[in-house]
Amino acid sequence: MQCSGARSPSIALLVNYRFEWVKQVMVMTAAVAWAIFCRVVDNFGDIGVCWRLARQLHQEFGLAVTLWVDDLASFAQIRPEIDPTQARQQLEGVLVLRWDTDFPPLVHAADVVIEAFACEIPAPYLAQMQARATAPVWINLEYLSAEDWVEGCHGLPSPVQGLSKYFFFPGFTKRTGGVFSEQRQRALQLAWRDADSAQFLVSLSPACPQHLAPALNISLFAYEPLALKQWLSVLENSSQSIRLFVPEGRVLLAMKDLDLTAGQYTGGVSRRGALEIIPLPMLAQDDYDRLLLSCDINFVRGEDSFLRAQWAAKPFVWHIYPQEDDAHRDKLDAFLVRYLGHQPTPALMALAAMMQAWNHGGDLSAAWQELVAGRHLLQEHAHAWRKNLLELGDVATNLVRFVNSKVK
Amino acid sequence: MAIKTAHEVRAGNVILVDGQPLVVQKTEFSKSGRNSSVVKIKSKGLLSGSGSEVVYKSDDKMEVVVLDRLDCTYSYFADPMYVFMDEEFNQYEVEADNLGDTLGLIVDGMEDKCQVTFYDGKAISVELPTVVVREVEYTEPAVRGDTSGKVMKPAKLVGSEMNIQVAAFIDIGDKIEIDTRTMEFKKRAN
User: Fold this and answer.
1) Element of type H or E holding A371
2) Which residues of B touch A156 (CB under 8 A)?
3) Nearest C-alpha neighbor of B125 from the set B146, B148, B94
4) Looking at beta carbons, which residues of chain B come within 8 Å of A143?
5) ipTM of the complex
6) What pTM was estimated for this model as a whole?
7) Has A46 been annotated as catalytic?
């Protein structure tokens, strides 16, 4: 296998990791009962992010966390232990409650209430929040964005319903809420070795042979990119072997619609020229992290996998969530400005061109060839970027600190 | 009292927050994620005089106080107050802070009909027409060939310290239309 897999852990990263442990032990809070409301609008980003946050708040800060989810079936896709028929269940210390339309009237409001991605808190629960002797700290957890305006809105209050709700924006600067990152994920990265990548990729699909032949390993998670057909054609005619791992989802459906799995999708591998396509089932979060660590280049989408790819420190191509009025163009540009830095190398320029073409259409052949040729440089850049992310502080720690500053 | 969404609130409006009247000085609209958006509002307490910054979902409903308004024209600047005059030649002083972003569009000789808003008999804000015309005092030379209006450059307006992004084909001396809701260049005025 052609492998640019995980490096040995650097001393700096190790020290930083140890420091994080100490720091988080020091971040204690008097607000011990937290509730997170998660409405699954589409895909798996909503529940993916909310679950990570709920688990982290419990495991790293010892908080009693209740996670209200309106779509347990989606949750079960990324955590098979979840039973969608059960209204109440525990998972890794987090109380998971089904958020039904007829919300029970007398549920006591928690000390801290988080509405994820601007979902509306149910009226009966809001009434309980208003009835508390001490008002809860109410947080609207917003979307991750690299745009400049985020700094100006992060942490501001929103006086509504006789309470103060605070907008908490994850972001890529110290004047924002930082980015999601957990100790378990950092530990996984530190321990990851090249041999783990080979072993993991073999284990992923029964269609994979015991020993993988040399190839460029790529993971693909996206919506329906305009350039999909063209890109796959480029891969097919590549001078080197390419192995494409595609977890179940919209892009796999799009490939089937285009007949790009050559009608052989039965859990097996389909081959087209230099390209091997390996469809995968929906992966649990930790396995998806391993996939990102194991591949040479990752294609990701939305928010959650986009961020996980940055932590995996491999070259990645982001398919941003398309928005009305093309608002996603500004968001992609804003991220690229930060990610590329002031003097981007030709490899980074190729990466940017590839992301633009992937999102907005256009010829991507030249950008892709340059990206592949420069991927070792891109990987070095990805490592440096990950180090920057570590310095921002993670969302959960920043959130606990923020709540502490608001607890009366 | 009227109900507006946060997105509809404009500088000069008076909103009620926890029963307190706040005059809106500035609003900033931003698209957050997945087709949702937020509005940051900078305001000043009408009674307390203290400033504050808050943020709302753009579709959050807000109570807007319906206040007395008068059509006026800008008359002169009497530091630190801006003086407006109605059709009966009554004069009203407005603090610079209460003009918000529109301050950059208040220039000597302007003839735009403005709406001055009153609270308890005091002029508290001024709303300009949706579109005003101003002259460009300085900008880099016009770029010929680009008439798309997508390539922008900064321009300084006559009688104002304000810089505004204008289309590349705009030249010194050109008159331009400005949308006062967004404070953005709209087009070259005829």
Assistant:
1) helix A365-373
2) 40, 53-55
3) B94
4) 32-34, 36
5) 0.84
6) 0.81
7) yes
